[in-house]
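Ligand: adenosine-5'-diphosphate. Inputs:
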Amino acid sequence: MSIEFKKVSFSYHKGTPLERKALQDISLSLEPGEWKAVVGHTGSGKSTLAQLCNALLLAEEGEVRKDGRTYGSLNKKELRCLRREVGLVFQYPEQQFFAETVEEEISFAPKNWGMPPKDIPHKVAEVLKKVGFPEALRSRSPFALSGGQKRRVAIASVLAGDPEYLVLDEPTTGLDARGRRELLLLLQSLKCRGIGILHITHDLDVALSWCDRILVLDRGKSVARGTPGEILQSLDTQPVRGLVLPPVAELSRLLRQKGLALPLTNDVREILSFYGVNS
Ligand code: ADP
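Predicted complex:
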């Protein structure tokens, strides 16, 4: 059980004067219950990779597979099922919304997948609870919600299809510090329930602090992969264009450069404990 990319390449407008290579030779796997970040500068191919994951785009070279089945070999019905199993949450929730109320927005997926109408209100309540969205607001327009609430509804509407994997394109964009933390805690709880999460972000701090593994893209190519600790080591010796170390990691890097035997870390508690300060 996994999603696998094997040497995947993709170009936009292939064979035309506007041809643009977006991804080259990307290999990747995502397991159930794994939270993987894909980080990179704007234009590095992150959104393209997200769309390849749920077959909105199909690989031009190489293969994307889920549970051993190549996306390119699936018929229309199978692709529809795949898009349910691998839910894509767009960068801007408004790109996803179309209904007049939160309830209708979330009901769409279960209705579409053939759930008996009597079970749908229960499903809506279940996913709203999962994402921590107030029941009292279910008759509101999804367009009239705050940024954090919109994001929760967008995730709830994908969760209503009972996906095995969630692919989120820049889910923390536009959220304040509290909204960001709440969203990350929500993703952590989904991961604990066994959902595999592919988290597209330009925010290295989020990737280093929350994710299990990280893939770094630059100009459509994979330039580093590994655990947060491994990626930190790699960026210390081989910086990647447009990726700036978060403040705590940068501080530990600078102190090490000054000769302190401090660990290279993005965790402020590690730095405090090095100086004998209990946090
Ligand atoms: P990121 O999400 O990291 O910003 P994208 O996947 O959006 O990167 O883009 C990768 C490359 O593909 C960029 O050079 C971008 O200009 C190009 N690209 C993305 N979408 C399209 C499109 N619809 N048509 C043509 N080129 C595109």
